[in-house]
């Protein structure tokens, strides 16, 4: 709506913009001021840049010495839940990187490869670091599997053929419970204590509509959100009522690209889409028949590809569009 | 402590959380649009739907490029990047999943090894069915839930084991269901499962059905084995009756009716609709070959006793099902046949009528004779109301069989039917007036059940009669129901002139079934020299290639389909294959080895059935069901003795042939009549083949059936000669079975020729397809083959393989007819599941009074359905009234031909197999209580084994 006025606010006290030399997709907040950005370059060599965000000074300062090359565009970046010195990336493989302030350099710690062949690779579409048990990372792959890694021992704890098609995203709920979404159109919950069963809590209306992203509400584990490919809707699920979404957030005007629950509030979720908008929603206890409207919105100059909500600074949401990252105060 | 603390904390943090508000610094508040702005919605909505029109999106969003298109993206990044879906870990649905047979496609059980996303390819139609899950498995094969991308819907695909026996048996199901669907129920109103398609993939016959939901056993189980409410029982009863009425009209006996084979539909638009599934054991009423049929709890007394049976056995099963729906437990949970009979007698307070006991072949297992033989003969005993038979006590049984009979647990302690129903606990807290109402309905139910679980098959109500019962119609029950007379079919038959042409006798002979003593007697008169008692005729005659067409079949003997390519094709695809001028070849091998009565078989040795063709000198090993009449020259009877009893035991006569020296092995007297039909018809061959069908299949056929078959063969005169009105009377319901054929009779003779031609093809195919009994018996190849001749086995397998290959070509042709089936079918509705929560609602409903149904069901998906219950009743009286008319119209030649085809297959197998008939084990599993075919897991607890560990 007030696109121009908002753009004029760039660099104001409410937002900070960082312009990267290349398009950005991957993006991660650490438990400190550190932020990581992953490039999307159509080349083998991609980049992961490390920046520091200072909310007081509203500055974003890059650390070129900590930045590093990455094979292929990373599909996801994530810092260790408590340590800003450990960064994990997914792409062709899961990699763990150590950011050493002392030496001002980043070292590849380990590469997790469960493949039996060297010629072929099943890329990882996403992963999630277990916030309750940071020794565990769960990855999702297009080979239909989910893999739970034991980081200390660099071993596969479990690999499950989780879906009937490619798995596109994965999220931990509890220490031993995770959920995943897939090209098969389903959201499934897995419990490592009972590996023989999974629970389908949602299936997309058309079985072949892939679900691309999944976000589990850490403040209220009953709720999770997912997005369908080429859909302007955010589907809100209540795991207590499987197969029936509790809400469809459908005010975006183009396909939704990213979703993030508020790290500190149980009923707020943000979403970003190809309509260049980032929306913040509050889930009402009772949905009105006319649907749910977002409580606030932000319009970016172009399609927003990524959105993260900082756990360290819950008043800040980061979005990525084109080659820019923007931190927005909410 | 912890929990309390957390409980206290939670609200606080929740308050905090919900108290959070974005301060709207970078974000602009989004004010819900007023009514004016709502008007603008269309624009924005259009934009949302079609973002491309608004902004130029050159490529997919990055999120899609790193998920859905990640391989392409990475290949752009690095042309060397390689990913192969084939390397993905497979989630096996089939167990064991090690491929050891059929080039690694099959596991040790001859099951196709299925993985998720395995594609079943119907090559001819260029259709793909993508396997998504396993719904069930059994000895017949597996049932998979598949995605049909053409129709965007799920279907249930039965993937038959790569073994001839199962293949053949499954073809029976295909043929019967296709006929039922297309001819009798084109509008899908009779609660019979729809068949959509079938094809061969990797040597496995695959049959596509509509996908259905939970079966009634599971429904009862979800209700914790408490009975369903009377309203539901009534609703289901109506629908099942509607299906049974259709079966009766078509002259088909389901033979395995039980709660597991009645499934809820998935359709949201058809409320609480159920459908009858699993026609893998079904047979034509006039071809009741197998004596070991029906699942035990639902087995009718006549089947148990080894008496001839009709569609009335399904009505018995139906009665058992109705009772079980109400009680939540089976009415006759017999742990053994003895126990079963004991329970029937106890609960029903009576026993099978003397005329049944007199002729049933197992009577002596369960009864002792306490009257004089004279009495039996004169039926005096029945006149004075006292039976000359008395059921054995446990001790007597033990003494006779020298083993204790298994006796199951008593659920309803020594109560009769009336007491069981009356004393069944009412739903708790039921208002008094509702109890009064329900007690009235219970009285109607008792009366209803009494007409269904009636020992005397002749007195047992027909589907039509039962559907008029107050319990079904909902009319007040005032006095015991006396059913309207069943639609008379007699006139049709009576019009047929009886011609006692000696040649006609062979029909009877051919059709004689040890299984049907009563009929045999009746038919005796026309084939005087047929030694009926001593040589169970059905088993013992064999007819062989009259035309000497036998080619190279000898070596290949053990398996069907081994007679050269053309015949092979027929063997496999016969049910509908229209083409086939190879009649000579095929017709030449008609081997009648199948004995309808497995038990007797044991004594008489099926092996005796070897047929020799005088003309060719070849004997035809395979086509078991073929009728000797096929090759019988008019009025000349030739006796051929073949087969050595005892040699092959319960195996098939065909086995003898497979050894290549049929004569050597044969010993038993096989009698067959040779008659040349050509005199009567312009196309001799066709006639021959044609008639053969009928015969082979009809070990216990009543005279009229045989007659009709003749009619089809375009020799009307024969018909008449064979038809024996007396039989009809004797049999009561017997008339029904023949309706198809009868209608043919009426055809002007002008049509006969064309008719016969048509039938020729079919019959030819059919003839060939008659399998070796070994093919029928699942255990046959497993055990018997091993015991006997190893070479047989290999021979059989190769043959089968070969014919399969050939067959696929033929499928195309055969498919022509099936095509409309699939196309005409209504779209299948995706299966949605009833959750546990719904299950609970079901529980509730169980105890609800009938009039309460709606509320009972409200929460569940089913609730919708149940609202409409009253509308569901499908069987309109008019239908029945017009039955006979319809029959006539059905009598068109092509149809007759179709019928012929399938008749062939079913009979041949079971009879020889006897107690080890495939259906026995195979179908129990699919319909087995724990593991039912198309049921879906409740969603909430929809835990599934659908992923596998890889580590």
From TrEMBL, chain A:
InterPro entries: DCAF7-like (IPR045159), WD40/YVTN_repeat-like_dom_sf (IPR015943), WD40_repeat_CS (IPR019775), WD40_repeat_dom_sf (IPR036322), WD40_rpt (IPR001680)
Per-repeat ranges for WD: 160-200, 249-283
A Pfam cross-reference name: WD40
SUPFAM superfamilies assigned: WD40 repeat-like
UniProtKB keywords: Acetylation, Repeat, WD repeat
Protein name: Uncharacterized protein
Organism, as annotated: Flemingia macrophylla
TrEMBL record, chain B:
Source species, domain of life: Eukaryota
Pfam families in alphabetical order: Pkinase
Domain Protein kinase: 129-472
Signal peptide residues on this chain, from the entry's feature table: none
Composition-biased stretches (Basic and acidic residues): 1-15
Positions with a binding annotation for ATP: 158
Protein name: Protein kinase domain-containing protein
Organism: Flemingia macrophylla
């Amino acid at each position: 709506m007030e696109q121009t006025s908002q753009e004029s606010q760039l660099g104001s006290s409410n937002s900070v913009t960082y312009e990267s030399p290349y398009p950005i997709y991957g993006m991660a907040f650490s438990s400190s001021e550190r932020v990581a950005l992953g490039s999307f370059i159509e080349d083998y060599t991609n980049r992961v840049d490390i920046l520091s965000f200072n909310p007081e000074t509203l500055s974003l300062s890059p650390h070129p010495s900590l930045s590093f090359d990455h094979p292929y565009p990373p599909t996801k970046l994530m810092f260790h839940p408590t340590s800003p010195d450990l960064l994990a990336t997914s792409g062709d493989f899961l990699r763990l990187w150590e950011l050493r302030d002392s030496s001002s350099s980043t070292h590849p710690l380990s590469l997790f490869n469960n493949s039996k062949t060297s010629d072929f690779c099943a890329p990882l579409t996403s992963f999630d670091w277990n916030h309750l048990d940071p020794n565990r990372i769960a990855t999702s792959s297009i080979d239909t599997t989910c893999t739970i890694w034991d980081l200390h021992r660099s071993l596969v704890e479990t690999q499950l053929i989780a879906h009937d098609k490619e798995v596109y995203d994965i999220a931990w709920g509890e220490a031993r419970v995770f959920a995943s979404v897939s090209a098969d159109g389903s959201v499934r919950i897995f419990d490592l204590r009972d590996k023989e069963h999974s629970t389908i809590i949602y299936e997309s209306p058309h079985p072949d509509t892939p679900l691309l992203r999944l976000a589990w509400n850490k403040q209220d584990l009953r709720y999770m959100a997912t997005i369908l490919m080429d859909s302007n809707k955010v589907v809100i699920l209540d795991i207590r009522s499987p197969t029936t979404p509790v809400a469809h957030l459908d005010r975006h005007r183009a396909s939704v690209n990213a979703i993030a629950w508020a790290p500190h509030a149980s009923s707020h979720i943000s979403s970003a889409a190809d309509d260049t908008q980032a929306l913040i929603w509050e889930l009402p206890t009772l949905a009105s028949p006319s649907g749910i409207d977002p409580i606030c919105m932000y319009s970016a100059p172009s399609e927003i590809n990524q959105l993260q909500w900082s756990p360290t600074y819950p008043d800040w949401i980061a979005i990525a569009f084109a080659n820019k990252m923007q931190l927005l105060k909410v | 402590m912890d929990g309390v603390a957390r409980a206290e904390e939670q609200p606080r943090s929740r308050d905090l959380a919900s108290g959070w508000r974005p301060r709207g610094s970078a974000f602009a508040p989004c004010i819900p649009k007023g009514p004016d702005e709502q008007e603008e919605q269309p624009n924005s909505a259009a934009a949302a739907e079609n973002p491309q029109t608004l902004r130029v999106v050159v490529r997919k969003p990055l999120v899609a490029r790193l998920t859905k298109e990640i391989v392409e993206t990475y290949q752009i990044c690095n042309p060397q990047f390689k990913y192969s879906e084939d390397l993905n870990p497979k989630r096996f649905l089939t167990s064991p999943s090690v491929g050891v047979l059929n080039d690694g496609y099959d596991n040790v059980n001859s099951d196709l090894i299925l993985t998720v996303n395995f594609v079943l390819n119907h090559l001819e139609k260029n259709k793909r069915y993508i396997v998504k899950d396993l719904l069930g498995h059994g000895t017949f094969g597996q049932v998979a839930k598949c995605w049909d991308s053409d129709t965007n819907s799920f279907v249930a695909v039965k993937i038959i084991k790569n073994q001839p026996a199962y293949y053949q048996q499954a073809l029976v199901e295909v043929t019967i269901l296709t006929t039922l669907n297309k001819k009798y129920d084109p509008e899908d109103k009779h609660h019979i499962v729809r068949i959509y398609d079938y094809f061969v993939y990797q040597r496995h016959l695959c049959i596509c059905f509509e996908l259905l939901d939970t079966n009634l056993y599971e429904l009862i189980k979800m209700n914790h084995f408490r009975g369903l409410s009377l309203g539901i029982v009534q609703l289901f009863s109506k629908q099942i009756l509607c299906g049974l009425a259709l079966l009766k009209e078509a002259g088909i006996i389901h033979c395995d009716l039980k709660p597991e084979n009645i499934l809820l539909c998935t359709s949201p638009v058809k409320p609480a609709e159920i459908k009858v599934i699993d026609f893998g054991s079904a047979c034509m009423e006039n071809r009741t070959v197998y004596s070991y049929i029906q699942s035990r709890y639902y087995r009718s007394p006549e089947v148990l006793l080894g008496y001839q049976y009709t569609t009335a056995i399904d009505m018995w099963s139906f009665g058992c099902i109705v009772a079980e729906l109400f009680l939540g437990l089976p009415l006759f949970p017999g742990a053994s046949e003895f126990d079963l009979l004991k329970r029937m007698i106890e609960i029903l307070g009576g026993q099978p009528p003397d005329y049944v006991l007199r002729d049933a072949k197992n009577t002596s297992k369960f009864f002792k004779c306490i009257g004089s033989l004279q009495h039996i003969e004169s039926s005096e005993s029945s006149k004075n109301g006292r039976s000359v038979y008395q059921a054995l006590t446990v001790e007597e049984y033990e003494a006779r069989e020298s083993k204790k009979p298994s006796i199951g647990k008593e659920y309803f302690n020594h109560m009769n039917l009336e007491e069981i129903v009356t004393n069944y606990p009412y739903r708790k807290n039921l208002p008094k007036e509702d109890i009064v109402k329900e007690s009235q309905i219970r009285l109607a139910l008792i009366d209803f059940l009494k007409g269904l679980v009636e020992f005397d098959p002749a007195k047992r109500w027909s589907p039509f009669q039962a559907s008029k019962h107050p319990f079904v119609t909902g009319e007040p029950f005032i006095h015991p129901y006396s059913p309207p007379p069943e639609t008379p079919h007699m006139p049709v038959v009576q019009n047929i002139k009886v011609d006692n042409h000696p040649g006609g006798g062979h029909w009877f002979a051919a059709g004689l079934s040890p299984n049907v003593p009563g009929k045999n007697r009746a038919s005796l008169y026309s084939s005087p020299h047929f030694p009926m008692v001593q040589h169970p005729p059905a088993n013992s005659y064999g007819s062989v290639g009259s035309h000497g067409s036998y080619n190279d079949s000898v070596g290949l003997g053990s398996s069907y389909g081994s007679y050269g390519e053309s015949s092979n094709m027929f063997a496999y695809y016969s049910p509908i294959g229209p083409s086939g001028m190879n009649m000579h070849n095929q017709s030449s091998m008609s081997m009648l080895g199948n004995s309808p009565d497995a038990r007797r078989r044991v004594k008489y040795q099926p092996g005796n059935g070897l047929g020799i063709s005088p003309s060719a000198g070849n004997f035809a090993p395979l086509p078991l069901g073929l009728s000797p009449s096929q090759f019988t020259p008019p009025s000349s009877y030739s006796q051929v003795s073949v087969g050595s009893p005892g040699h092959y035991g319960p195996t098939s006569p065909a086995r003898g042939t497979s050894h290549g020296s049929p004569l050597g092995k044969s010993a038993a007297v096989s009698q067959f009549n040779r008659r040349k039909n050509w005199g009567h018809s312009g196309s001799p061959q066709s006639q021959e083949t044609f008639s053969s069908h009928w015969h082979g299949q009809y070990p216990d056929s009543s005279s009229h059936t045989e007659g009709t078959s003749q009619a089809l063969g375009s020799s009307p005169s024969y018909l008449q000669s064979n038809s024996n009105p007396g039989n009809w009377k004797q049999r009561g319901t017997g008339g029904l079975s023949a309706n198809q054929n009868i209608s043919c009779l009426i055809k002007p003779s002008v049509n006969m020729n064309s008719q016969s031609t048509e039938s020729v093809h079919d019959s030819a195919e059919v003839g060939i397809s008659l399998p070796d009994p070994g093919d029928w018996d699942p255990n046959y190849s497993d055990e018997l083959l091993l015991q006997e001749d190893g070479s047989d086995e290999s021979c059989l397998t190769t043959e089968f393989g070969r014919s399969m290959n050939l067959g696929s070509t033929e499928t195309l042709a055969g498919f022509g007819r099936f095509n409309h089936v699939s196309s005409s079918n209504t779209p299948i509705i995706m299966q949605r599941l009833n959750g546990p929560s719904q299950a609970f609602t079901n529980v509730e409903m169980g105890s609800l009074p009938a009039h309460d149904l709606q509320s009972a069901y409200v929460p569940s998906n089913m609730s919708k359905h149940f609202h409409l219950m009253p509308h569901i009743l499908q069987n309109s009286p008019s239908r029945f009234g017009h039955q006979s008319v319809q029959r006539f119209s059905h009598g068109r030649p092509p149809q007759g031909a179709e019928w012929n085809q399938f008749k062939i297959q079913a009979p041949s197998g079971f009879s020889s197999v006897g107690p080890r008939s495939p259906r026995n084990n195979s179908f129990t599993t699919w319909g087995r209580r724990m593991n039912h075919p198309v049921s879906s897991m409740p969603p909430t607890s929809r835990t599934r084994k659908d992923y596998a560990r890889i580590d």
